[in-house]
Write a structure and sequence with these properties.
five-stranded antiparallel beta sheet, mainly beta, globular
Length: 249
């Protein structure tokens, strides 16, 4: 009979495991004030590439989509001096950014928003301008932010990515009421073009108006569109916005 040793033989020390690479999946938003009471937003969502998100700001809702790197940017009209912007994704990820926009008190804004807008347009006739003339500001003639910053006229902003299903689109007319160089009136209206997509249907949207430092007004709009034999016609709604009375500054 042979006795075997009961002591364990020493074995080599096992190598340590390399730590798995970690990915920073936090959603980040940077808000930077821009001329004419606008705010430049930069969204960084490295784990949410080519994903739809919704931007929320003082009742305004805008759809956006990140690119292949999870990045996105947009320039948004501020609706408050202490501007708070919230970005939310369908998966539940979100982020918040803030910006100080002290110049908001010098600007008036007329806003329409809805799912795709479906032919809805804000029109502004500045200082007695007729349709198609200089001073007629709409999505076909957007105006210039630099002109507004000098107090010479208004401009239009249309924001929202239209690649997703039922995207939230916003159209905003801005006028520098508090710094305007000339006195006069700006006539505001909302128009609805009858298209193949909206004919014979009810259009739903929200109409907002912000005047300087005054609280923002909001109303819901449901508009019964004509039948499809009226495609190409326009409905002009002149009682949804208050016209602007501009005093010389």
């Amino acid at each position: 009979m042979t006795l075997a040793a009961l002591d364990d033989e020493p074995i080599a020390i096992m190598p340590r495991e390399e730590p798995a690479p970690s990915f920073n999946c936090e959603v980040k938003v940077l808000a930077t004030p821009a001329p004419a009471a606008m705010v430049q937003l930069f969204i960084d969502a490295p784990c949410l590439t080519q994903e739809r998100y919704t931007l929320h700001h003082n009742g305004m809702m805008v759809s956006g989509v990140t690119d292949v790197d999870g990045l996105s940017s947009m320039t948004v009209p501020a609706l408050s001096a202490e501007a708070v912007f919230i970005v939310t994704f369908a998966a539940g990820d979100s982020a918040v950014a803030k910006a100080e926009v002290s110049s908001i008190e010098y600007y008036d804004r007329a806003i329409v928003q809805g799912a795709g807008l479906n032919g809805l347009q804000v029109h502004a006739l500045e200082y007695g301008a007729a349709y198609g003339e200089e001073g007629h500001i709409w999505s076909g003639e957007m105006g210039d932010v630099a002109v507004a910053a000098r107090g010479e006229g208004g401009f239009m902003t249309r924001i929202g990515e239209e690649v997703a299903l039922n995207p939230q689109i916003v159209e905003v007319y801005t006028f520098p009421t508090g710094t305007a160089l000339n006195e006069g009136f700006v006539e505001l209206s909302l128009e609805a073009e009858v298209t193949a997509e909206n004919c014979g249907r009810d259009l739903e949207a929200q109409v907002l108006q912000k005047s300087g430092s005054e609280p923002m007004s909001a109303r819901e709009l449901t508009l019964a569109m004509p039948d499809c034999d009226a495609i190409g016609d326009f409905l002009v709604l002149k009682n949804l916005f208050d016209d602007l009375n501009i005093a010389r500054n």
